[in-house]
Design goal:
Elements (H helix, E strand, L loop, with lengths): L15 H4 L1 H4 L8 E2 L2 E2 L12 H9 L25 H10 L1 E9 L5 E9 L9 H10 L3 H16 L9 E6 L7 H15 L8 E6 L12 H16 L3 E7 L5 H8 L3 E4 L1 H4 L6 H16 L4 E5 L4 H10 L3 E3 L18 H9 L4 H11 L6 E2 L10 H10 L5 E5 L5 E6 H8 L4 H6 L12 E2 L3 E3 L4 H9 L6 E6 L2 E7 H18 L9 H13 L5 E9 L1 H8 L1 H21 L3 E6 L2 E7 L7 H18 L6 H6 L1 E5 L5 E5 L2 E9 L8 H17 L4 E5 L1
Parallel strand pairs: 4-5, 5-6, 6-7, 7-8, 8-9, 9-10, 11-12, 15-16, 23-24
Antiparallel strand pairs: 1-2, 3-4, 3-10, 12-13, 13-14, 16-17, 18-20, 18-23, 19-20, 21-22
């Protein structure tokens, strides 16, 4: 029993290490420091592990009887800001971890948790980076990190459904370029499995925020070392994320070199993004860049409000993390498998989902995948891959999934043909001692897109990966099928034809087909209030007769631009019925959206147009406030300057599904009332 109150490795007679000869041969995962020498080093101080041992580590089945937190004895080699070994032992005993969920933005499912270090302030450290700086100064950074890593994993496996999700763990950048870390990366898969989890569940977070003492991320050699270390992690099926992206100056270089699985956008850009167009531009560009470089997921950090959630969804983020979902907790049992608030918010936001899903489902190819791990936890071998291709001779690739049915990548048949059609090729592949036999060598990462993603975003991802051969489609992170290059091009063609057929050529706004579909879907929705607004210019014919069609088009475009500006600020649907008639629709699924706000927005649109359109008239007409023209009977008459009459129809939840024709008849009657009223406005509730 050590000072932590746990059994030391030597006392664990029934431990996994004692039962497994391969693990018994591995040097201790948490090195014992004696003076200035690690007992796991060879006589020259170099860290090494044999290829055969590495293979045995890879093949070891998972042990779901997790061991206690390993003991660690530290004797500081370079006394610095924190000091003695006993103080580090006490520090490690007192440090704790809190967990914060990372939730799928489309489904509300918890797909991972970030481990957040706690109690550093109680130990006298000004910040968490200060703690790691002290460990670095004392020469025990690796030992401290490994002990904390074990603590984080122990906290994680207390979550009842931990086998379904990922653990995000922050690692100090200085460890990524050390030989010791490269050594331990080879035994860590065995270490991870001793806790009953797989390497693909472990995500290293690399931050550009705290790098005070060394300039690894600003140094070409440092970046090269990091890239090499991450390559080893990748081979062992660990995943990694760039944390606090945008908080420092080296994020772009790190993104370029690391090719991470996850990109976490810093809280600074998320806070207030809903009302900050510059932040929206940054986040949108970051998401597009991440997609273009092959990243699978973008995580928005620090989401605290519903408005920020909707903004993150609109920008294309895949996951959210923050107080809106749940505050960090040191009690693992408080982590939920799903968060209804997120799924409810997402359901509010799916105006176009059904139609886009129809397009994607029509082109989706259901290729049977292969799971990277067998039922006993061992890695699949190359013969199993051959068997999949043999059973399905018409396929050119096989999707590879992890234990949670999440895509890792694909194996292309063409990459195996080099061996299949060469002398002794199959024998080489079946030889476990050969590097060519390793299945991970043949796994290629291709774009992965959620099925509920707008078609425009799917096409955008594809356009940035034209040599990928297609994209894997997921739902809630789980594999659903494959969209080939040909299917994606067909998707693009159908979408373009549909939009071109319906889009108004003058304003580029959706036309009657999409307007009718929006109203029909709203009339069928029993859960939310819908508001339909209809606009018609007043005195537009005499204006056209006097100023000509070009000026008439200018006025129409002016109103369309005002509508577009409003839709950028408020979630709404806008359309151009034709001529000088326009449409706007609101779905009251947000606490901010109320009937009164919709009325105010519609009235404001009318006021803004009446103010802006004055610029179209000549100076004399502007001064007079009217134009002289002829009415429909051919009689001369004075006509006021252009204004807009607006009709507003609301349909509360729970009402029966009104026919489409009836809805537009009511709107037409309201428009007549608006034109004859002094306010140029009329409203009615179905």
């Amino acid at each position: 029993m050590n000072s932590f109150g746990v059994v030391t490795p030597s006392a664990q007679s029934g431990s996994s290490a004692a039962r497994d000869p391969a693990l018994s041969a591995i040097p201790p995962v948490l090195p014992v420091i004696s003076g200035s020498k690690r007992i796991s080093d060879d006589q020259d101080g170099n860290c090494s592990i044999s290829p055969t041992l590495r293979e045995r580590v890879r093949e070891r089945p998972p042990d779901f009887d997790p061991p206690p937190i390993p003991a660690v004895e530290i004797k500081a080699r370079q006394p610095g800001s924190f000091g003695t070994a006993s103080r580090w032992q006490i520090a490690l005993e007192q440090l704790d971890y809190a967990l914060q969920p990372i939730v799928n933005i489309h489904t509300g499912a918890c797909d991972g948790c970030e481990a957040l270090l706690r109690n550093s302030a109680e130990l006298g450290f000004a910040s968490i980076p200060a703690l790691f700086n002290a460990a670095h100064d004392d020469g025990v950074l690796l030992e401290v990190d490994l002990a904390l890593r074990a603590k984080a994993i122990h906290k994680f496996i207390e979550i009842p459904f931990h086998h379904q999700i990922m653990l995000f763990y922050n690692i100090d950048n200085r460890l990524l370029s050390s030989a010791a870390t490269a050594h331990h990366s080879l035994v860590l898969p065995a270490f991870i499995r001793r806790f009953g989890i797989h390497p693909h569940q472990f995500v290293y977070e690399i931050s550009e925020r705290h790098d005070e003492n060394i300039q690894i991320l600003h140094d070409c050699q440092g970046l090269a070392n990091i890239k090499d270390t991450l390559g080893v992690f990748r081979n062992e099926l660990f995943r990694y994320a760039i944390d606090d992206f945008g908080a420092g100056f080296s994020g772009l270089q790190l993104l370029y070199h690391a090719a991470p699985d996850f990109l976490k956008i810093d809280r600074f850009f998320i806070a207030g993004m809903a009302s900050d167009q510059r932040k929206q531009l940054f986040v949108s560009a970051t998401v597009k860049m991440a997609r273009g470089l092959g990243n699978n997921a973008v995580i928005a950090e620090g989401v605290e409000t519903i408005e920020e959630f909707f903004a993150c969804n609109q920008m294309g983020c895949d996951y959210v993390q923050g107080y809106l979902v749940q505050r960090p907790t040191t009690i693992s049992g408080e982590i939920k498998e799903s968060y209804p608030l997120i799924s409810e918010l997402q359901n509010r936001n799916r105006r176009h989902e059904s139609h886009d899903l129809e397009h994607i489902h029509r082109q989706l190819k259901k290729i049977s995948p292969i799971t990277f791990y067998n039922g006993d936890g061992s890695m699949i071998d190359i013969d199993q891959v051959f068997e999949v291709f043999r059973r399905s001779p018409g396929i050119s690739l096989v999707p590879v999934l992890n234990r949670n049915q999440e895509p890792i990548g694909v194996i292309w048949e063409k990459d195996l043909k080099e061996y299949v059609y060469s002398p002794f090729g199959r024998e080489i592949l079946r030889n476990r001692a050969s590097a060519a036999s390793h299945v991970p060598r043949f796994i290629t990462r291709i774009p992965t897109v959620e099925i509920r993603t707008r078609v425009e975003h799917v096409l955008e991802v594809f356009s940035q990966h034209q040599n990928s051969g297609g994209a894997l489609i997921t739902e809630g992170g789980k594999y659903q099928g494959f969209l080939s290059t040909e299917a994606l091009l067909q998707l693009l063609f159908v979408k373009n034809v549909e939009e071109a057929r319906d889009q108004n050529p003058l304003t580029k706004l959706p036309g009657n087909f999409l307007i009718n579909r929006y109203v029909a879907e709203g009339n069928r929705d029993p859960n939310f209030t819908y508001v339909y607004g209809y606009f018609d210019f007043d005195n537009f014919k005499p204006f056209n007769d006097t100023y000509g069609l070009r000026s008439g088009d200018r006025a129409i475009i002016m109103f369309a631009e005002i509508l577009k500006e409003t839709s950028n600020r408020i979630r709404c649907f806008i359309g151009h019925v034709g001529g000088d008639d326009f449409f706007i629709g609101f779905k009251l699924d947000d606490d901010q959206l109320t009937l009164q706000l919709c009325r105010d927005l519609i009235s404001d649109l009318c006021r803004r147009f009446a103010s802006d359109v004055v610029s179209v008239y000549n100076a004399a007409d502007r001064k007079n406030g009217y134009i002289s023209s002829y009415d429909r009977a051919g009689k001369p008459q004075r006509f006021p300057l252009l204004t807009v009459s607006a009709a507003m129809l609301s349909r509360p939840p729970g009402t029966h599904a009104h026919p489409l024709d009836e809805t537009f008849k009511v709107l037409a009657e309201l428009k007549k009332q608006a034109k004859s009223s002094g306010e140029k406005f009329a409203a009615f509730e179905l």
